[in-house]
């Protein structure tokens, strides 16, 4: 079965796995105090050109979002997200489980507009009864978005400017950051991203690791006592080395960026194939996710040979599906898929 | 200063206050086990023609919404509301404080449409990944709505039918129920309401009491152990008599309904005055709230003589304001307001 | 039926009720912005000789404890209480509902010892893994305690000194403060109390009001945005006048202190009667609660004529019960009880 | 540096790591729906002789405790634990973060007594005001305990009998289950454990895996919709294969039990060495943790060569420390430690 349904269908990039093998029998202290975690933090600070950043490793995306957002917000605050944001609709209520509301504004192919954000905050404070409503206390965007789209540097800077004016931290979910940074259309570098927001995370799970997301507090320091906050969320690994070793490998010799490039190359081939076969795009993106409208019988037929992701119902006879590539996708996989299509 | 800003600007209806005076020196047991609370429950069951209903008295509207919704929902469930619903936007995150998401669908002058609700739930279950999203576990509507509008019997029945088909309880926020039931356009009686939903509350704070909302579980029994649930929300009065005595008075000799009629009569006069003076309605309603678009200088001038409620900015020179009547509004108040206008 | 089971069995002190009657038809703005609430705050600041104090009115004791403690604590912090503290065992988990742990130390007739508190905090920080445990973030004591006992000025000062050394706020639950301050053995005045802690509340529900507790931030300012915090807990009254008017009355002409004296006088007579009748005290206290060990048949017999409170099982044939007086208890009530005993 | 401070200082058992290597490039579906997870569940059901058990894989111990306890409890319920239980004192408030109180009873070398549990529950229900307190809704024990001690079969059966009588689920934290089952003094087998409780987890992190705990609902089915519950806790791995593959390896050819035996053998040698060197035991246990009272200078000296865990202050000149072995401890390590001692 070909795997095009998501970007987490394989294990770890071989170099990441090898690092786990190489370090396996070293004794290391627990809870993220090991040498590999320390070195991974340092490598990430260097890659971000953010020497003072506070870096923490969490296990997965929903966990990272719920933990970071809870750390950023006062109890009377919520997080502003596009209505299509992962925290708004795909996390089973993990943000609310922590007591916070997700405040939504319109999403345009997965992205929020700076003007909508500015307007939302302005209307909030114009309301004479604003103390009876949830304060906008942080802003959440994803790069790339849940729809595979990208913010341009100007767009992100405009959102950041609104946040700075209102003294609200900007949090960037980088679950698929490798695939964003590697896209031809992306005009943001990792060091620039660290300048354009207050905290972000570098996705590992979907970008070459077995698990793990590296949270980087770049425009602010981590709130007081991050360790108990993280542990309270059930997010502190006893064997912190598990994420430390993997991110040490990902940020050695530019592996993280190489992983991004591999997935983007196969994604470009995939787009060409989908066009050649005449498929109708629901959304064609510069990153590793492509959204296509399929007749239901086509979807069923393809699924006999390749995993593809149900996205949403289009109409009674058509479905929107997602094709994904990852670091593990090969040109042979694309050829095989082309044969199926 | 004339008070037209809301329906909670006076104390209690004189008959309600007299009941507090009359019973003041009776010793009564605490926590809602007193004789007046018991009799109030019985009177409410009779007025609702719901002899098996479980009735509880809470203190205020946000508290009632947060407590009831928390009692209705499993942890993985959220409550569906119109985007303008009180629980969605005017409760400072009280629902989320309890761990639950408010799931929003479009609001039309404060009301949801049964078709939108049905569609929302259908799309939820069609999603192959629905277990990663928040389950619709209850439906919240308000009667009258935050915009003073009313569901017709047919509209509410249609929403209830969707809920019953999906086995989701329907909860009606009746903070202003007296004013809804008394409206000429209202084709729902209290006993009918008890048939048209699973739980609702009869608003006291805005309808003649000093405080208090009577929660009525009519289409279902209260979930297990309501007392600790209520206490956990900080909502259990030691002197439960405070709400018991008031609701006993409100449901003696039809006082609750009389209170509604008084407010509706003055509201009708108010509407006529507003029309006569040529004001532009933002929303003209059959109940005790009227929404008018005022030039900002008019708003400022009126506010020198009468309290009116900021609702939202209309444009740079106009504001939407709310005029409210209540049981305490007199025809003299309307005349005085007319003079100001 | 005589009422000796608790101190909330009657309505409001007549002067408090009269104030509600007198102000009933005044239009006032909502949510605690009315003139009576403002004046009540000012009267309380004067009575406390704390001109800069932030004062808020909440509805009941559990609600006040849960809301204030939540406002004082960071998410990684818990509140330290005696193991018999109300927040530790009689609030149905309201503190934990807000996400916080109650950290317990020994209670001696309801009181904590400063040395135990100091030791608890010292052991906490000596632990090399303290970041894996809940931080002591506030200290809770009650005055009078759940057992009717009193802290002396020296005892409370010692606890306060520990808190100041550790920079942890001290919170005093004054649900029965009137009865504490009025006791002969009490060597603390209200202004002194305001110097001896960081925040406390002046109990209304059990001390002459229909409902209401006045939270006084005296040694610190209220944390940011108290209104949404309070509303989030479902604790913001639309008719804030309800508590404002009552506390205005309670702090006019020394009524609150007079209420305390009345209850203490009847409590002293009660103690004498219990001694005369030869009852065995479980705990004899200087305030309005007395704890007696009764043979079970005596308890049953007394309960035919007077409400008394089950406290705990003593042995298979005896039960500890509580006798309470309040402002509403008369010498005639005591005489009638004496006849029953 | 020798590592005796804990049982999570190395990576994975080589066979577990090899399984990750061998399966790395297989495409597998996400979120625990992969073939390895399915097979691991089946192997665990077989090892437990519990063919109907519901099995889920979580990442770490605190996460497993917080998620399972939250799934077991109604909102008005707390979990009963020994005062030394991990959930009571070493999880940074993760249980309370989920809204639940930990109800504590005495711990004796880490263990609760069935009589204390029975007495606690009986006193709870004897209290006429029990609805104002937190209901005992589940019971938590650990095997082996935080102090390395073991419940005998009779002791656990007695606790289970109390739970069954009261219809409260019994949850066993098996973070160190391999080391418990392998101890000479242990008279409980894995299938017997599955009969003696309602839900337990098989610890992976401390027993040979990089991460992962296998939760087994054996005496009851998992509550409704476990996937969103787990995701809400941030505990659902996108690459569920990570835990599936590891547990598949751990339960192939008895590896999990072999891992336990290795650690127990080195622990026995360690005990002998500590005795030979004349060290004073704080607690000598049949499992992989030994607690010793060290003069502070000895602790400092040993720590130059070997990691050992601070446990608690003994007196001003002595400290209680923990020596741990694990599957990764070799006889050579013990010899080297002996040289240091």
Automatic annotation (TrEMBL), chains A, B, C, D:
Per UniProt, residues of the Aromatic amino acid beta-eliminating lyase/threonine aldolase domain are: 15-219
Superkingdom to which the source organism belongs: Bacteria
InterPro entries the record matches: ArAA_b-elim_lyase/Thr_aldolase, PyrdxlP-dep_Trfase, PyrdxlP-dep_Trfase_major, PyrdxlP-dep_Trfase_small
One Gene Ontology term of the biological-process aspect is: amino acid metabolic process
Cofactor names from the entry are: pyridoxal 5'-phosphate
Q: Which UniProt keywords apply?
A: Aminotransferase, Lyase, Pyridoxal phosphate, Transferase
Example GO molecular function term?
transaminase activity
One short Pfam family name for this protein? Answer: Beta_elim_lyase
The family this protein is said to belong to: Belongs to the threonine aldolase family.
Which PANTHER family would you find in this protein's record? L-THREONINE ALDOLASE-RELATED, LOW SPECIFICITY L-THREONINE ALDOLASE
This chain's protein is named Aminotransferase class V-fold PLP-dependent enzyme
The record lists the organism as Collinsella aerofaciens (strain ATCC 25986 / DSM 3979 / JCM 10188 / KCTC 3647 / NCTC 11838 / VPI 1003)
Q: What is the lineage of its organism?
A: Bacteria, Bacillati, Actinomycetota, Coriobacteriia, Coriobacteriales
